[in-house]
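The data are quoted verbatim for completeness:
=====
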Amino acid sequence: MTEKLTLSVEEAGKLLGVSRQVAYQLIHRADFPTLRIGRRVLVPKKQLEAWMDRMTNTMEGIDHDVG
C-alpha cells in the first residue's frame, strides 16, 4: 500500500506534537496548508513539511537577530 498524501487535522496535530485544539486553530491560519474537499479539511503532507521548514527558518532567523 502507498503512503498517504494527506493527513486529517488530528493526524497533522499529532505529527506536529500539538493538541487537537491547536491543530484546529492552525488550519485557520492563512499560511497553513489545507485542502478542502466538501466539508472535510485535509493537510497535504509535503506542504506541511515545507511549512514546518519555513516556520523553523523564520524562528531561527529571529533567534539570530536577537542578542
In short: The chain has three helices and three strands.
